[in-house]
Amino acid sequence: MTDAEVEAGLQLSLKYNVATACIKPYSIAQAKKVLDGSTVKICAVIGFPHGNSATKIKVIEAQEAVGEGAHEIDMVVNVGKVLGGDYEYVKTEISAVDFVVKQGGAILKVIFENDYLSDKEIINLCKICTELEVAFVKTSTGYGFVKDSASGMYSYKGATFPQLELMKENCGDKIQIKAAGGIRSLDDLIKVKALGVTRIGATATVAMLEEAIKRGIGEEEAEVKVKWNEGEAGGAAVY
User: Fold this and answer.
1) pTM
2) Cβ distance 114 to 146 under 8 Å?
3) How far is 68 from 61, CA to CA, in rounded Å?
4) Is there a catalytic annotation at residue 15?
5) Strand pairing report for 136-138 and 176-180
6) From CA 203, how far away is CA 107, in angstroms rounded?
7) Which residues pair with 238 in a beta bridge?
8) pLDDT given for residue 239 in this prediction
9) Which of 81, 138, 191, 193 is catalytic?
10) Quick one: pLDDT at residue 231?
11) At residue 9, what are phi and psi to the nearest 5 degrees?
């Protein structure tokens, strides 16, 4: 992204008063200038988007980002180590990054990249993050495209209802969940909130929030009913 595109995103964050503006580390200084005095926090990504950096590099990235003013850090796990079953490595890495993030007064979100993972692997990561008491677990980066072995075509799902339910069931009560990727409408947002998701990452922010305004959803608590499709949970959500 160009600096002009980052600036536009930061201004959008201000306009809609979102929880955080999620940026690459080099843009922290720019974000501070725009967001200073607002309630919008700065979230920097590290080991992004593939999670392949060495642990010590992720630790340095996290330290630098927090030191420069990031309030939250989104870190991608080493997916290869997860797929290979080396959970000791995965746990040690998450712990090391979480330690320096907390030391700097910030919080950590651990990105799983669910498109690559089985249910068992997602459960194992939830258990590790619960044991370490990280602030958030997160579904995806938005870049986790999976190549089909037969057709050679790439596909991407992002946050799915079954996987979000799985994460909710296997994370401790103190661990929050962020759904990223695949949340493209206000109804999608309401549905994942009803599943227990507390944070949403979406490129369709403007469309969803403008639709919420049209439907009378604002700061006052309201009951909202949406249509649940086959295979999804059902019910009404109160906000």
Assistant:
1) 0.90
2) no
3) 11
4) no
5) parallel
6) 22
7) 223
8) 39
9) 138
10) 60
11) -65, -40
d(CA 178, CA 138): 5
Q: Mean pLDDT, consecutive 10-residue segments, the chain of 239 residues?
A: 96 95 97 97 96 97 98 98 98 98 98 96 98 97 77 80 96 97 90 94 91 85 73 48
Please give the pLDDT value at position 236: 41
What CA–CA distance (Å, rounded) separates 114 from 138? 9
In the residue annotation, 86 being an active-site residue is answered as: no
- Sign of the dihedral through C-alpha 219, 216, 206, 183: positive
Annotated catalytic residue, options 41, 58, 74, 193: 74
Alpha carbon distances (Å) from 103 to 73, 110, 163: 13, 17, 31
Tokens 């990452």 correspond to: 201
Please say whether the beta carbons of 53 and 87 come within 8 A. Answer: no
- Does the annotation count 178 as an active-site position? yes
Catalytic residue among 41, 178, 191, 193: 178
Q: What one-character-per-residue DSSP string does the chain give?
A: --HHHHHHHHHHHHHHT-SEEEE-GGGHHHHHHHHTTSSPEEEEEESTTT--S-HHHHHHHHHHHHHHT-SEEEEE--HHHHHTT-HHHHHHHHHHHHHHHHHTT-EEEEE--GGG--HHHHHHHHHHHHHHT-SEEE---S---EE-TTT--EE---S-HHHHHHHHHHS-TT-EEEEESS--SHHHHHHHHHTT--EEE-TTHHHHHHHHHHTT-SSS--EEE-PPPTTS---EEE-
The four Cα atoms 93, 94, 99, 100 give a dihedral, to 10 degrees, of 70
